Amino acid sequence: MHAHIHLCHCRSVNSFHSHKLRKLMEKGDSNELYDDDGRTRRTGSLTSASAHIITAVIGSGVLSLAWCFGQLGWIAGTASLMTFAVITWFTCILLSDCYRSPDPVTGTRNYTYMQAVKANLGGFHYKFCGIAQYGILIGATIGYTITSAISMAAIKRSNCFHNKQQQGHNNHNGCHTSNNSYLVMFAIFEIVLSQIPNFHKLTLVSVLATIMSFTYATIGIGLSIAKITESGGHPKTSLTGIPVGKDMPSVEKMWTTFSALGDIAFAYSFCPVLLEIQDTLRSSPPENKVMKMASTVGVSASTLFYMICGTLGYAAFGNDAPGNYLTGFGFYEPFWLIDFGNLCIVIHLLGAYQVFIQPFFAFVECWSNEKWPENKFIRKEYLVIGKLRVNMFRLTWRSAYVVLATLVAMIFPFFNSFLGLIGATTFWPLTVYFPIEMYISKAKIKKNSFTWIWMKVLSFTCLMVSLIAAAGSIRGLFMSLESFKLFQSIS
Length: 491
What we know:
Low-confidence stretches: 1-9, 11-30
Strand content: under 5%
CATH class: Mainly Alpha
Largest sheet: 2 strands, antiparallel
CATH topology: Amino acid/polyamine transporter I
């Protein structure tokens, strides 16, 4: 059986490709098969990049927006969504120019976010970026595992509610179900999908996931409109959200507001994979131009959906909006449509999980290859069926990762607080700090100049927002832990 070596962005592979490129240049057909760095020609386009972005952006964050509006109200809720959208779009434009260094069109490629930070800012920032980036990617996969299990459990509960109503009573006791079996089911699917070798092979998964995300968001919008048009009293909404009073002390209002900001930040947490997405694009037109257009398309489409979901969800449920409006059972009927919406969430998150975790998989595999270059267990790929290749190290390590992430999801199954904490801890370093610092370095912005000052002020302001949002989410997690029994997560 012939072994084939397939690795990610390691130096050894670069030299292997460079040698191959020189050979092909002698034959005169290099333009057809390989890019300027000696790697297989990239085929990504504006469409595929936009699909990757929308897959990464419109995730489970959309489901908590009605709850966020409930905490913040019409004014702060709308303003927060727009502000996070504009900041994310702006920093993505800055980040798109960091794919190549020093020149954004003809410079050397930076295949990952971390490489871009190393090329532009140096060693200390590189290590800080690694901790922040891989921390958020791991956190996102745990969050997606929790959300998918809750959605799968919601399908069972929805059918239970429907059957009880058909029997002539609305008592929903007995419809609760354990999440553990659904967590395991999701993990099995992810172990299979994790064998997709790299980001470049994910386009089909991303396109399917994007369709699913639009589908379940549209279902949520449709159900919200139906609820708004129902006869009877309309739920109470306000300009400032849930009013301070007997049921909502001022301290509690402050904490839930902070947590809601974290949830909105999570809704835009795709910057950690932006350069990995850019690395899938073909060279002409220049990658940075296409990525800027893709970022504009992705952020605009996502924000429009977010705004519609948040405002209609809040109008439908008012200040009592559930934390997750497809699984929190603000809706009971039509039960089949709620089931389909939750199924779309699960399919979408199966893909989004891969979009987020592939850079971490690549990092560990590259590091292992450079550490043990002669190890056959790590390096060999075996041809199994047709073009299907299996690498034993990849199979073992990626499967082990999915199992560990699922165990953590079983221990901390708290949807809103978990999303808020991930969003808060990622937003400042990866979405704001590094793009701004790299731009200042690349463009040689003079210290204390007007541009330098306003960019630093923007970065500091976002740091403060991230800190208070993280504090709100951590408090929410501790509050949830008080009544939680280990491995007994119930929907």
